[in-house]
Amino acid sequence: MEHPDVFLNVIFHEVNDMGDDLALCAGFERGQWRNDQLADHVMEWLPEFALDYTELNEISHSNALKMTKKAARIVYQTEKYGVRGEFGEILLHIAIRQVFETLPAVSKIYYKSSVNETVKGFDAVHVVKRGDGLELWIGETKFYESLTRAIYDVSKEVIDHLETDYLRSEFILIKNKIDANWPEAEKLKSLLNENTSLDDVFDRVCIPILLTYDSDVVINSDRFNDVYKENIKAELVNAYGNLRNKMNVEYNNKFSQDFPLVAHVILIPLKEKKKLIAALDSRLKALQV
User: Fold this and answer.
1) Known InterPro entries for this protein (predicted)?
2) Nearest 5°: phi and psi at 40?
3) What Cα–Cα distance (Å) separates residue 200 from each residue in 188, 205, 209, 256?
């Protein structure tokens, strides 16, 4: 499945036994952080993020604008944009598609039963083909200004979402929303079947976690260069470890496990979350006219 051209810069990407540490940034242009360009890029991903497989394959030159507007309406039907997490979910979608080449299975937007409803559950449901089977990617995101708060909130939420009863109920929802025309539909349904042991599922699972935050380094920088990348890395050096430690403590306490929880941690520093929200909001509203 093709997707928009790459926009986000990889600041660093390190692989270890507990999962990848990844940082992405919009970068700079003419001395300014690319806030508006990032907002434009997010809009390019709207159809893939919000529409199902059948709808995506029906897009043509004649109906592309119509389908993009439909995607915008699905994603955004509230004035309360300051407290909603859809923007973080789209960034998570973009990040794992760009870096890990995942395939979107079900859009969380389809869980909505009414306008303005905040949807619980995983923030992304993707897959990666592995041999003759699928690897399930179930993601979480926090679109925050404070990295400390994002780490605190997501660490508990991830573990709560790994409870057996919660997983089983989520899997039922996911199975019911899988587009029958999607080529991997039957394989994913089989993986999520209630008769499939969760042990087998978790032999084929990845947990991507994306956090945003307002960055002092971004605020005080004007170029994407080696100095900037080193400063960002220094700003984030403890964040990955702190998040993993918090999750492992919660995980081991709740499930009596003696092994670490493997997760891919993706951090996206922002210059100012409020200005990015304003730029995204104006574009979504324009598409709904």
Assistant:
1) AbpA_HamA_C
2) -65, -40
3) 13, 9, 22, 18
Count of structural domains within the chain: 1
What is the pLDDT confidence band of residue 117, given thresholds at 50, 70 and 90? very low
Residue 109 resides in a domain: yes
Place of tokens 């789209």: 90
| H-helix segments, the chain | 35-50, 53-57, 64-75, 86-100, 147-160, 164-177, 185-191, 198-202, 216-219, 226-255, 273-287
Q: Which of 116, 108, 262 has its CA nearest to residue 170?
A: 108
Domain contains 3: no
* Residue 103 φ then ψ, to 5°: -115, 125
Query: What digits encode the pLDDT tens for the residues 63-100?
Result: 888 888 888 888 876 555 555 678 999 999 999 999 99
Contact 158/175 with Cβ under 8 angstroms?
no
Task: Give yes or no for a contact between 267 and 178, defined as CB atoms under 8 angstroms apart.
Answer: no
Determine the 3-state secondary structure of 254 from DSSP.
helix
Q: Which domain holds residue 238?
A: 9-287
Instruction: Tell me if 89 is assigned to some domain.
Output: yes
Residue 204, in any domain of the structure: yes
- CA gap 50, 238 in Å, rounded: 34
How many Å apart are CA 23 and CA 139, to the nearest integer?
Answer: 16
Under a CB-based contact definition with an 8 Å cutoff, are residues 26 and 38 in contact? yes
